[in-house]
Amino acid sequence: MPQPKPDAANQSPETFLWGASTAAHQVEGNQNNDWSNWESRVAAKLASNAEARLKNELPNWQEVEEEAANPKNYISGTAADHYNRYKEDFDLIKKIGLNAYRFSVEWARIEPEPGKYNQDELDHYAKVVIELRTRGIEPLVTLHHFTNPRWLEDHGGWHGKNVPEMFANYTEAVASNLGNVKYYCTINEPGSYLLMRYLGGGAWPEWPNMSFDPINGYKYLKNVIKAHKLATSKIRNINTYAQIGMANSIIDFQLGRKDPISWLFTKQLRYIPDFYLLNRLEGSIDYIGVNYYMRMLVKANFSHPANWAKRWETKNSPRSDMGWELYPRGIYSVTQKVKKYGLPILITENGIADAKDKLRSKYIEEHVAEMMHSKEDGADIQGYFYWSLLDNYEWSEGFWPKFGLIEVDRKTQQRSIRESAQTLGRIIKKYS
Ligand code: IFM
Asked: b/e string for 341-377 if b means 16 or more Cβ within 10 A?
């Protein structure tokens, strides 16, 4: 098997990473994990309640209605068939002008039974890294992006006993087989996972085993911290030049009503879970991964936590196909907040669902401009990864939201580079 080579350590620190991100379950196809198990059970229900859920939320409901009401939309199936087409996709990454790619490896493929590793799957991901390196594309490998092997769920899920040790052993198998990888992200968006899986019950979009269970949610956070630390030391034993971080979805929470309780709620929402985690990870992360998508206005109320903060939804603000307000200034605010940790920052995700590609170019231009402004004001930002490289399976929304720099035809799997990807290419040239 290819072993880590020290040459990755020599990559110039001045090289800004311009990349795109994906996650295994969302693009690879043919998964056998807790999500694939769940989605086949709930697809019909998600399709039949789509109109009630989305009609008043989405600016372009009529354009997505057909897909959103179709149960097939909610089954990840072959997704973008990236598992087989990754070389073609890497050629397109080059064509756009990116120099980095963030992807996740699928735990369920690698460890289909507890303690039994599938060497063919490890070899597959090692080849993925080689194909990236051959093209001069820097890999950033995420080890956990929402999905779990089914056996982990049978064991009780992420809050269960010994999960940090299990995650660390899986990490060791990955790092010792993947070869020349400098950037690792241990866990993607633990805050989103906490909200969806442990606090979402009864209010949020659907999620496997969703509950309202703050006690196990707290155990989950403790396990995430321990898992990250154990995994980090496994990677460092194998690969001394590794740069290891975690990707946090950091929302720009703003005061939505001037009263002391709303002020208190705003402070709490800013703290939990992102800063709670970052404070406890200090010393065990080399960079801070920021996934930035939106701001939310906080108006205190004592109902379900899902109602504590609302998206800013003025009818005049431009909004994505998913109804998310476009708020570029927030990328400045959140990166200014995390600069206090004194670590490099990578924007590990930033993107828009925009099927017609009408808003994406401006979205990217404005977010990159705000990011550069924050860099000038002292935030040590060293990379920007657009979400997503390809049109992807957007969890419980299925395939109708189109995030890709590259459009994927669901029937033929044909790829077409969107105009906005060319815009990103031009921006990269301007800053290089
Ligand atoms: O698609 C997701 C991704 O998996 C995690 N961050 C947010 C993206 C857009 O919703």
From this structure: bebbbbbbbbbbbbbebebbbbbbbebbebbbbbbee
